[in-house]
Design goal:
single chain; 8 helices; seven-stranded parallel β-sheet; alpha/beta; 205 residues
């Protein structure tokens, strides 16, 4: 997943150590917001995996902010803690605003709630990168478009296609359609039992 994110995010290879140092000494905040106006698209999974990647692969301290009252990310980390990831429960606009206060050297990953536009907007207004998980086809397109419309101008934003069957024509057509519309698809998360199992299984690599 990391290789598909913007240059402000980790990549593999020789540049990893340099980028780790850049993140650790960066004076400004790094806030990655996983947002979607619809539930059930893999938003929590995306947020947890991003937080784990930053903490375990790059040794960057991470605050995972669970802004969803359903507390799915919180339950996940309570069952399977990740070294280097601190959980912050913030299911209200006031709490999430406080949780997103700048902290040099700390990466913040946010799991937003579906259907709460005020909290989603508060998260997006603080974001330095926005990831929109979506699936192929159906009402997913309009939901992703609605979320894109909330992202402040100038903030890097891209899609992550979840439960992806990348070998199918539907998947290829979806990626082409989004790209033609000027919306980058940063990566696709494959449809795997281990990933879909959430906290009931170890993080899948």
């Amino acid at each position: 997943m990391a290789s598909a994110l913007p240059a402000t995010n980790p990549t593999y290879g020789a540049g990893r150590s340099r980028e780790r140092r850049d993140l650790q000494r960066a004076p400004s905040k790094l806030v990655i917001v996983a947002a979607s106006a619809k539930g059930g698209v893999g938003k929590t999974t995306t947020a947890v995996y991003l937080a784990a990647l930053l903490a375990t692969e790059l040794a960057v301290p991470v605050s995972l902010v669970d802004a969803d009252a359903q507390a799915s990310a919180s339950e996940w980390l309570e069952l399977r803690p990740v070294k280097g990831v601190t959980l912050v429960e913030a299911p209200s606009e006031r709490l999430v605003t406080r949780a997103l206060a700048p902290t040099p050297g700390l990466a913040i990953v946010v799991d937003t709630p579906p259907g709460s536009e005020r909290i989603i907007r508060a998260c997006l207004n603080a974001a330095t990168v926005v990831v929109i998980p979506t699936r192929v086809g159906g009402v997913e397109i309009s939901r992703a478009q609605a979320t894109l419309g909330l992202v402040p101008e100038g903030v890097p934003v891209g899609l992550v296609i979840t439960a992806a069957r990348s070998w199918t024509k539907d998947h290829r057509d979806a990626v082409t359609a989004w790209t033609d519309a000027g919306v980058p698809v940063w990566t696709s998360i494959p449809e795997r039992v281990a990933i879909a199992a959430g906290p009931d299984a170890p993080l899948s690599t």
